[in-house]
Amino acid sequence: MMADPSVSAPKLEFAAGGGLLSRRMLLRGAAAGSGAALAALAMPRPAQAEPALPEWVTVAGERARGYGMPAEQEADVQRAIIEPFGDLARAFSLSGTPHHKLRGTITPNGLHFEVHHGGRPNLDPDGHRLMIHGMVERPIKFDLNALERYPMVTATHFLECSGNSFFNAVMPEPMQSGCDMLHGLLSNSEWTGVPVRVLLEEAGVRPEGRWVLAVGNDAPSLARSIPVEKLMDDAFVALYQNGERIRPEQGYPMRLLLPGFEGNMNVKWLTSLWVTDAPAYTKHESGEYTEILANGSSVKFTFAMGVKSVITHPSATMTMSGPGFYEISGIAWSGAGSVRKVEISADGGESWAEAALQEPVLPRALTRFRLPWRWEGAPTLLMSRAEDATGAVQPTRSSWKARYDPSNFLHYNAIQPWQITPEGSVQNVYA
Amino acid sequence: MMADPSVSAPKLEFAAGGGLLSRRMLLRGAAAGSGAALAALAMPRPAQAEPALPEWVTVAGERARGYGMPAEQEADVQRAIIEPFGDLARAFSLSGTPHHKLRGTITPNGLHFEVHHGGRPNLDPDGHRLMIHGMVERPIKFDLNALERYPMVTATHFLECSGNSFFNAVMPEPMQSGCDMLHGLLSNSEWTGVPVRVLLEEAGVRPEGRWVLAVGNDAPSLARSIPVEKLMDDAFVALYQNGERIRPEQGYPMRLLLPGFEGNMNVKWLTSLWVTDAPAYTKHESGEYTEILANGSSVKFTFAMGVKSVITHPSATMTMSGPGFYEISGIAWSGAGSVRKVEISADGGESWAEAALQEPVLPRALTRFRLPWRWEGAPTLLMSRAEDATGAVQPTRSSWKARYDPSNFLHYNAIQPWQITPEGSVQNVYA
To answer: Does A336 lie in the same domain as A210?
Structure first.
């Protein structure tokens, strides 16, 4: 059904080139923001006739069950299994969240990304212990039941692998994959657990204790050094994920949660917090998670993930369903705090319009942004650019690349451009 | 391990009788709030020795997978199947969220409560349509693909069946069950979908259109009348639940979301919005969801759920693990807006202490409250009492019962008292 020419709709308010409309259109009661404006735009309508009475209305449905699952028609909404390492894949195991198939900000637990250095252990929660020892007055050992009686905190935070988006960082030509492969090592959950501060204070950290080595109860005993200040600030031992017990692949029965810090430091299957006076420089921190700069020097510790955004709708592998109205939608985040602003360009960076941010905007959590848009069916280069509360702005790919040795793929946070062809195909490009 | 007498811990600050401590203890940097205070309390410690090297550390773990599931050790964390209706159970089908096994505020999708009047239809999303018709200028029909292009909104809201907690309302003696059976027809999700306002404005509601009959695409064609004002305010057609497509038992592929309104009005498998000038008085609204008052008159439409709270930790069916420190934890909500205050009594209502509310406190969403507590091992009657932003306060059971005909079990929002025996057993009581 095309627009009804008899409708006198409000005039559309454009905010930038390429058909970007004002975010004010999304406000309740806005003159140009009403659904009436949509009546003036070509919107898709179902074409084929449907049966008078669908078959499923004529029979009794299924009864209630103990634990629900997604609709079988959604069976393709899965994490993408990523195996880019050849023989290294024997140790590493990765899967990415399909952000182009999700809306909102929470990642459902079944779709939270995975990066395992030695697989997901088949851990017995009754035999699992968390020790706090080293430079403390009173070493303490906890089991799960003990921690259940402690004060808890609930907070929504993203986790992002420091190697997220590595294909864009190092591939000479842009890979044509969805947001699951390209940016899927990123998820967002409501976590609940015990503040590390409470546990460290009970143990009594000695004045010389400045660092803590966190160790996982998995085959590689993944270990990372963390400044005591972060642990005394907002860190917690997460026991629950979106309400229920933390999932096996996210560290069941407990993981470290360091809001904003790179993923692998949030040690899964956490079993030991060893208070020391200096970093341990473990293989996992020196050998695997160090960035080499353009001048050949290495950055030993890059804790917080940089400010970043990705348009998820539309995004690569999608096809536009004809010209007309769309809502551009995406996610933005920063390890340094809250997202302050997201701008969108539909003309390759010539002009930018500010997107609407979904409230509540929470620090170190995914923020959903949206902007109304009229696509004319012309070739279009879409980009999003996020700014966080510290004023940091997402770089272009070329300025990001200039900072590092060509081999580096860690902490890649460049702008993601999507090229839309006149036929409506959406492609990953470097621009 | 008992408390170490050599530790000089801060003095505990009590806030009310029965061992209730001040919520200020939970604040970062609080003098009495530090973990050091816990060192002065008897806290449980793991008793038995554990193996030097757990077996699971000696072997490679499982690899990444497409869609994750809870740990097999958590197999008992299920929705409770509730079948209280005898032969009526052929049509009705219910399951309750196990809030006593959850923390945080989000309900994971697999554990969202269910109330089906004719079962969960095996609906083909490609054959499903949403019609807007009746007193409108331009009747419109949408399929799922069409709605995907519309502006969307994301919001976290609870849903509560108006019959939630019905065992407490009508059973002559308090039933000894967990929070899944007693209060489980309540869940909380982040929903994403298209504002109904946008769709109604595009269709153009005629001046005489004051009500909308919403109809579900299931066997009983469940239908409810809704004032146009609510639909033009904060209502939306939800397509996503905690990020992923809405689950079959919550209305896949779309349901109505009326923030704060009683559950069944949030029509699942939504297929029709019929604009009318008066309510339809369907069987589902007049026959099933009308409260009979003590004076014999009936209340036809009670839209918003009342202010309410439940302590989930500890709660009925649990056993305390010995005297000492605990954190009392629970959930509070109101269909009228935000929760303003939750008070807790540990002496049967003699004295009350204000609980800490977990930020962000969102309107018409579950709010987690917490209060530190030292249980001395004595008989204790625990209660929580919520107050919302409108000043409404949760009633006692006897004052709630006095308002209604004895048969009424709808909109029960009375205070839930838990009796703790000296042996640590937690029981449901009327008090």
So the answer is: no
| Number of domains making up chain A | 2
Would residue B411 count as lying in a domain? no
CA distance B349 to chain A (A): 24
Q: How many CB atoms lie within 10 A of CB A328?
A: 23
A173 occurs within a structural domain: yes
| Pair A182, A256 in one domain | yes
| pLDDT (0 to 100) of residue A40 | 63
Q: Is the pLDDT score of A34 beyond 90? A: no
| A277 in the same domain as A146 | yes
* Geometric angle at alpha carbon B282, from B276 and B284, rounded to 5°: 130
Residue A363: domain span: 9-41+290-431
* Cβ within 8 Å, pair A108-B25: no
Does the residue A89 lie in any domain?
no
A270 and A300 housed in the same domain? no
Cβ of B4 and A138 within 8 Å?
yes
Q: Which residues contact B5 (CB under 8 A, 6 or more apart)?
A: none
Structure tokens at A294: 């353009």
**What CATH number is given to the structural domain containing A356?**
2.60.40.650
Is A275 in the same domain as A327? no
Query: What local confidence, expressed as pLDDT, does residue A8 receive?
Result: 46
Alpha-carbon distance of A306 to A160, in angstroms, equals: 10
Residues A130, A202 within the same domain: yes
Of A235, A262, A287, which closes a domain?
A287
CB A28 within 8 A of CB B234: no
Amino acid at A74: E
B192: which chain A residues are within 8 Å (Cβ-Cβ)?
A: 103-104
Q: Which of A26-30, A399-403, B55-59 has the lowest mean pLDDT?
A: A26-30
Please tell me the distance from the alpha carbon of residue A304 to that of residue A337, in angstroms, as a whole number: 10
Per cent of chain B over pLDDT 90 is: 81
Last residue in a domain, options A287, A307, A329: A287
Note whether A116 and A242 are same-domain residues.
yes
ipTM of the complex: 0.95
Q: Is residue B163 part of a domain?
A: yes
| B382-421 pLDDT per residue, tens | 999 999 999 999 999 999 999 999 999 999 999 999 999 9
Distance CA B378, CA B172 (A): 27
Closest C-alpha to B275, from B222, B227, B218, B217: B227
Per-residue burial over A33-67, b = 16 or more CB atoms within 10 Å of its CB, e = otherwise: bbbbbbbbbebbebeeeeeeebebbeebbebbbeb
Q: Are strands B291-292 and B270-276 parallel, antiparallel or unpaired?
A: unpaired
What is the distance between the alpha carbons of residues B399 and A321, in angstroms, rounded to a whole number?
Answer: 58
pLDDT at residue number A10: 57
Query: Do A249 and A327 lie in a common domain?
Result: no
Mutate to test the interface with B, among A244, A315, A359 (most CBs of B within 10 A): A244
pLDDT cut 90: percent of chain A above it: 80
Distance from CA of A398 to the nearest CA of B (A): 32
pTM exceeds cut of 0.90 = yes
